């Protein structure tokens, strides 16, 4: 929002554990420069964290950070307010009192229902895919309701979620813990002011080896659902596209990255709306930050054409048409 982004991460201080930190990054488009704010802890009372998922509530202009607390295993939520390049938190809420301390999470804000959806592997129930729906109220999130299980096909490890802005629903992607593949599912969130829930679609197999922290995006321009993640089985980055129609996401194509990311690392992705391309970022083999562009299937480089002719042309005749691209 307003050329600003919030980056959240786990700062390792001992082995693989550490507190949750975040920074505000502001972009100046006229000079192509960025300004980074101070590092801020978001874990309640300095909690060490696992599994971080962000969502931006555009109605209330709040950043929602969900995470698993390492010590208690609780699933906790902080609501942040951005001012300049600073972010502040007050209070916290709990969306799960157990089984959320491990694994990756997914989270998305749906403006249609004004809800925050969080998905995660519920440790206390075979790591099955679980979901809670809440709504921002002041400086906290009202979760209410009960945890729902929406996929029991396998033990899941990592999650991602994105809002389908065409159908006003949430797509979630869950990766198997044994690196055997992944599945996607469409969730329709709702909230009555005191508690939230989802109407669950039928989970679908993605058929590919998603493992390490998948990222999923949705393009309203061409109804494409896209995901990128590293495969632990083959140590390469897969880029996959599906075409969304109603409640179904049909596989379109895949792309394998030309460079193996350095280590078992997560990757990042966003969509360039003007060209419908996916830009993927990752840590390269030389420790440098790297990126590449993914072109969705059946993609052209120019859109918005209009044809102009100086005379009428009948259905069976030929004529000259001047094409203008925009």
Q: Could you describe the largest sheet, including whether it forms a barrel?
A: 5 strands, antiparallel
Distance between the termini: 26 Å
Radius of gyration (Å) = 21 Å
- Tell the overall outline: globular
- Write down how many β-strands occur, each being a DSSP E stretch of 2 or more residues: 28
Structural class of the secondary elements? mainly beta
Uncertain runs are 300-306
Q: How many distinct helices? A: 0
Element string (H = helix, E = strand): EEEEEEEEEEEEEEEEEEEEEEEEEEEE
| Overall average residue pLDDT | 78
- Helix percent reads under 10%
Relative strand content: over 45%
Structural write-up:
With 326 residues, the protein is mainly β. The protein contains no helices and 28 strands. The strands form seven sheets. Strands 5, 6, 7, 8 and 9 form a five-stranded antiparallel beta sheet that branches. Strands 10, 11, 12, 13 and 14 form a five-stranded antiparallel beta sheet that branches. Strands 15, 16, 17, 18 and 19 form a five-stranded antiparallel beta sheet that branches. A hairpin with a 4-residue loop joins strand 10 and strand 11. The relative contact order is 0.09.
What distinguishing features does this structure have?
single chain; 326 residues; mainly beta; five-stranded antiparallel sheet; 28 strands; 56% strand
Describe this structure in a few short sentences.
With 326 residues, this protein is mainly β. It has no helices and 28 strands. A hairpin with a 5-residue loop joins β16 and β17.
């Amino acid at each position: 929002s307003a050329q600003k982004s919030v980056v959240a991460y786990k700062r390792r201080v001992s082995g693989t554990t550490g507190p949750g930190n975040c920074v505000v990054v502001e972009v100046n488009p006229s000079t192509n420069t960025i300004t980074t704010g101070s590092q801020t802890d978001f874990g309640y009372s300095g909690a060490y964290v696992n599994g971080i998922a962000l969502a931006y509530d555009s109605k209330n202009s709040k950043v929602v950070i969900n995470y698993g607390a390492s010590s208690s295993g609780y699933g906790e939520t902080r609501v942040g307010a951005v001012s300049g390049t600073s972010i502040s938190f007050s209070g916290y809420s709990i969306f799960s009192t157990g089984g959320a301390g491990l694994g990756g999470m997914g989270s998305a804000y749906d403006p249609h229902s004004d809800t925050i959806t969080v998905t995660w592997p519920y440790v206390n129930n075979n790591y099955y895919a679980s979901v809670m729906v809440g709504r921002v109220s002041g400086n906290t999130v009202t979760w209410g309701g009960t945890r729902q299980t929406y996929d029991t096909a396998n033990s899941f490890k990592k999650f991602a979620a994105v809002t389908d802005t065409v159908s006003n629903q949430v797509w979630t992607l869950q990766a198997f813990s044994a690196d055997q593949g992944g599945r996607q599912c469409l969730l329709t969130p709702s909230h009555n002011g005191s508690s939230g829930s989802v109407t669950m679609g039928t989970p679908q197999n993605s058929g590919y080896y998603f493992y390490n922290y998948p990222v999923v995006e949705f393009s309203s321009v061409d109804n494409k659902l896209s995901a990128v993640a590293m495969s632990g089985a083959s140590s390469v980055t897969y880029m996959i596209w599906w075409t969304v129609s109603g409640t179904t996401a049909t596989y379109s194509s895949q792309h394998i990255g030309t460079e193996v990311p350095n280590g078992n690392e997560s990757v990042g992705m966003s969509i360039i709306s003007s060209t419908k391309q996916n830009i993927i970022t990752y840590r390269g083999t030389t420790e440098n930050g790297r990126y590449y562009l993914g072109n969705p299937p059946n993609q052209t480089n120019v859109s918005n054409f209009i044809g102009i002719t100086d005379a009428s042309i009948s259905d069976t005749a030929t004529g000259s048409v001047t094409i203008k691209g925009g």
